[in-house]
Design a protein that fits this description.
Elements lengths: L1 H29 L6 H5 L19 H15 L20 H9 L5 E4 L6 E4 L14 H7 L11 H4 L3 H10 L7 H6 L10 E2 L7 E2 L21 H16 L3 H29 L6
Antiparallel strand pairs: 1-2, 3-4
Helix pairs in contact: 3-9, 7-9
């Protein structure tokens, strides 16, 4: 008796699911969702070729150092790197003395405590310190940025779909005016005060002003021409490294594992042929 009741209950559950799906499909067909400006005018990031791309990719350390310079001179005023310590910069080619100098000369000092008075204080950064936050707290960050909170950039290329390509397209994608077609079709989607139109941003309007605006905004020590596109590529590559500093090790490990598996497969096949060579099967 229990089993037939269970079967009937299951059939009833399936029937309800099918009915709900059918009603939903009919509703979607008869009354499709209204188009939105974000859906029609949002652009997908343009492809970005970096040396670290692909399963065998390796970092271009000169580019990473240029990207760090762009972060330091352009981005660090608003964006933090909570997951990165100054000493990690040895991974992109800086020497220990250079790292020590970068830390001690960093514009923002590290929060500390005065040992004599116990009062809050600041001190020069040490190589072991993480990059200090440009703002004392979230309230101060919002107050300085029209109530927008600048995100931490440590894992940005992992947190956004298309990673470095998204960052590069966002930095180079600002437009002075919205397309006339957008305003004609969606008159309520006009960019508001304190916002900037960028078709690569999810809702088309971003609170961050264009950070990289002119050629030569940064002067590269290696002589590379600092165009807007070049600076955007370099800082995107740097943020790939901050998000995954062990990427090269992972690639090397992957290659070693693939080679091991190929050899193990070959040995297994030869052992199989040897053991069963005299047996009909």
């Amino acid at each position: 008796m229990v089993r037939p009741l269970g079967i009937l209950a299951g059939l009833g559950f399936v029937a309800i699911l099918l009915f709900s799906a059918l009603v939903g499909a009919i509703s979607f067909i008869s009354e499709p969702p209204a188009p939105t400006a974000e859906h029609e005018f949002h652009k997908h990031p343009e492809p970005l070729q970096l040396a670290s791309n692909g399963p065998l990719g390796r970092f271009d350390r000169q580019q990473l150092q240029r990207g760090f310079q762009v972060y330091k001179e352009v981005c660090a005023a608003c964006h933090s790197l909570h997951q990165v310590a100054f000493r990690d910069l040895t991974g992109i080619g800086f020497t220990d003395p250079e790292v020590k100098a970068i830390a001690s000369q960093w514009a923002i000092e590290v929060p500390s405590v005065n040992p004599e008075t116990g009062e809050p204080a600041t001190r020069k950064a040490l190589p072991a310190d993480k990059f200090p936050d440009p703002y004392a707290n979230e309230v101060a960050a919002r107050a300085a940025n029209n109530n927008a909170l600048p995100p931490d950039l440590s894992l940005m290329t992992k947190a956004r779909h298309n990673g470095a390509a998204y960052v590069h397209s966002l930095l180079t994608g600002y437009q002075d005016k919205q397309p006339a077609e957008l305003l004609k079709k969606f008159p309520d989607s006009k960019t508001g005060p304190g916002l900037y139109y960028n078709p690569y941003f999810a809702n088309l309007n971003i609170a961050m002003p264009p950070p990289i605006v002119a050629e030569g905004q940064v002067t590269y020590a290696d002589g590379t021409k600092a165009t807007v596109d070049q600076m955007s590529q370099d800082v995107s590559a740097f943020l790939v490294w901050t998000a995954e500093p062990k990427l090269e090790n992972r690639h090397r490990t992957g290659v070693a594992v693939v080679i091991f598996l190929l050899i193990a497969t070959a040995l297994g096949f030869l052992a199989y042929r040897n053991i069963w060579s005299g047996v009909k099967h």
